Amino acid sequence: MKTIKKDKINTVLDFLIKKYQVFGPVQKDDLVVDFGRIQNGAQACLEFSNTNEPAKKLFFPQAETLFSYTGSDAAQVSELKPEKPRIIFGMRPCDAKSLSLLDAVFDGPDYKDPYYIVKRKNTTIFTLACRRPRSNCFCDSLGIGPFSKKDTDVFMADLGDRYVFEPITPGGADILNKIPGLENARPTDAERLKNLRSEAESKVARKVDLDNLPEKLARIFDHPFWDGIHQKCLGCGICTYLCPTCHCFDIVDEQKDDKGRRIRIWDSCSYPTFTLEASGHNPRATGKERMRQRLMHKFRYFVENYGEIACVGCGRCINHCPVGSDLIREIENINNLK
Amino acid sequence: MDLQTKLRQEARKLLEEKLVDVVIGYEDEGAPLRTTPCFITDPQDVDRLVWNPFCDHNLARYLTARKDKAAVVAKGCDTRAIVVLINENQIERKNVNILGMPCGGIVDRKKIYNHLKNGDVREAVLKDKVITVKGLEFTADLMVDDFLADCCLSCRHRNPVLCDVQIGENLPPLDVKDEYKKIKQLEESTSEERWEYFRKTLSKCIRCYACREACPLCYCQQCFTDQNFPAWVGKTTDISDTIVFHIMRAFHTTGRCVDCGACERSCPNNVDIRMLTKKIAKDVKELFGDEAGLQLEEKAPLSFYNEDDPQDFIK
């Protein structure tokens, strides 16, 4: 384990920027911290609870050109060359976990998405342990926890006056070894880390029981419960767009004169157009079917397909729902159904 | 008797006498600084209804999709939206029972988060006009009036403009000092400065359409953004696509927007959506002397022509 004084953290970033494209939390306005490209160390905002938007957009952008074409020529698919290697600095453990869930979709045995994979393979993750879980965080219930060291290359934690760095993968260790100015951690740091971990875990106040949820959902597809749950839902895309694991997309073509491009854009099962067919028929005609789909996908279909729940307990869907829908309460209601 | 008790009484009466099928109101599910819309059909459930400065949604938004008879809890601005919906033949007057609430303004919780330096509010208790907020490391007493939404600070219609039952006495008009202060600043800035402001705030937009969905007057069966043949606007988050979406949506609200602020409050990324609609509302007022949703059978300013309409834009 290595360590550096807090006021020297910019030198670490400035070093990394020379060799890597560095992305990290950046203050967008008084309330919004989001991932952005960091051009100099001072831009990073490491005193935050979590980014407004999850990290998925760095691997699966909201709009991504797949290929472009001119005139009647065959489409030109430019070769996907890795760019300058990337480091995501200061991702929370919940978002890091979400990447392992997205890997199952975009880099699984049956389907390989080259656009996702090239970015993923080109990126080293530095997670920053979360000392500020918020009121709607429930990562604990998903087996993650604010100090999780899984799904990352380098684990970092804020000790108050210093940051500590712990290499998790060989790739992470390589980078860490090259950073100048890091000192060896102090003998007491492990104990301090353990205490901070307990303190952070105690702040994750909300819990949800997910043990029997996939099986329960399999039994209640036609339950009258769904008739009421969607009533207040506006049908906006906040819960899906701000979800670190939601990954549905649409493909659109844009053409002007003889130039065109095919773009992949995020889509949301909350939108009526998501399943609207060319005939005009919509198999998910109302909010009832759409909300059921969202919950079924995260907590049942994903489990059936990939063996894990598609949720990391980050609480963004709860924090930002304009009408105060609360995923945890919805799950509790489902658990309580006869 | 306090307004909340009166509201519950009225709601119970409407449901017991089967005058309405549902009462759409607000309930408190325990999330601090928030209420959530609720749909009450059983008179036994009316005690779930609450009335407080956190009742921020414009519930008129739920009326257009309904075929039954609904009672709706409505603040001044919400009743104006209902008037527009009736005038635009989207709902029938006889199918809506308006529980009108004189409103002293609602709290913009983003202002509270901002004041607390993005502190994590875990508990909030409202007593009279004081909100006691608690986080893990702080406790603070905040005055409701210090955290009212911007649209409430310049509100000229705090009392219901149309209702079946009014809950409580009319409030005196607010002494609005400078309703368009922010808009005037934008108008007086250079086009480069304005562009920079638009770019900065709209680049945060993630095209989730919460603003559109929260707006009671965005009821088009097919929104122009959802059309793909022809595609009127690109679907990416490229700033040009995003700006086109917001400008077109704002144009569509011309002479109709009641400035309830629902669009802005629903935004997850703090985009200044209201500056566009407020600017347009100001223009409509100055050019046509019109404010949306003040009376039934009123024609929308852009739907008819008067000989003395301003024409100096024709060069």
Mean pLDDT of chain B: 95
Give the N-to-C terminal Cα separation of chain B: 61 Å
Radius of gyration of chain B: 20 Å
The overall average pLDDT of chain A, rounded, is 95
Radius of gyration of chain A: 21 Å
Number of helices of chain A: 11
Oligomer: heterodimer
Q: Quick one: biggest sheet of chain B?
A: 5 strands, mixed
Total E-strand runs of chain B? 8
Distance between the termini of chain A: 51 Å
Describe the structure.
The complex is a heterodimer of chains A (338) and B (315). With 338 residues, chain A is an alpha/beta fold. Helix content of chain A is 32%, strand content 19%. In chain A, α6 (213-219) crosses α9. The radius of gyration of chain A is 21 Å and the shape is globular. The termini of chain A are far apart. The mean pLDDT of chain A is 95. Chain B has ten helices and eight strands. Chain B has helices spanning 3-16, 76-87, 109-115, 150-153, 181-188, 191-202, 210-214, 239-252, 262-266, 274-288, and strands spanning 22-27, 36-40, 70-74, 96-100, 123-127, 130-134, 139-143, 165-166. The N and C termini of chain B lie far apart (61 Å). The model of chain B has no long low-confidence stretch (mean pLDDT 95).
